[in-house]
Structures are given as structure tokens and as C-alpha cells.
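Dear colleagues,

As part of the handover before I leave the project, I'm documenting each prediction I ran so the next person doesn't have to rerun anything. This entry is a single chain, and its sequence is reproduced below.
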Amino acid sequence: MIIRFANKVMQPIRNKVGMPLRIHSWLRVETYNKQIGGAFKSFHIDGGACDFSVIGIKIEDAKKLIEPYLGVWGARMEIDTTDWVHVDCRPRKQGEPVTFYGRKIK
């Protein structure tokens, strides 16, 4: 999953923002995910989710730049993060928005 996610989501994000990405968390082993309070079936475990920031761009500005393209890339974005951008490829139901409110982790 990580290669597909890199090609279909993360590289298009980098192309769109035009700046390097700083990866905070991408692929997590289950024990670490559990230790930090990550979601039980987190897409980070299979490499289908990434937390990142864009070097030289504020988090909110980066979110505004990529949000219009999330559906095209088959991704969704957590909207209540302030220190990073979280995107994942969890499938959405018909009509479900591309943005969602997450939950705080340690």
C-alpha cells in the first residue's frame, strides 16, 4: 500500500504545493501506533496515511492548497490538526466529504 499511496497521493501533493515535504509520521508498526494512542485500524500501519508539513508553507495554507484535489487523488484529510497535515486513503462512502475531524493522540 505504501508505494501506491506515495505515487497516487503524496507525490501529487508535493507537485501541487511545489515545496519539499517534512514527513512526521508515515509507516508505523502496530506496537508504536498503540503506544502513542493511534487509531485501532490506523492506515499508518500499512503506509496508507501520512502526517507531514510543507517546508515554507503554514499548515492551514497547505491544507487549503490540497483540499480541492483530495477526491481526485482518492484521499481524505483531517481538518483539526494544527502541527501537521494528515492525509490517508481510507475509502469514503458515497457522498462522504474528503475532510474529517480526527481525535487527539499522545
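Strands lie at 21-25, 49-54, 76-78, 85-88, 99-100. The longest helix spans residues 2-17.

All the best with the project,
I.
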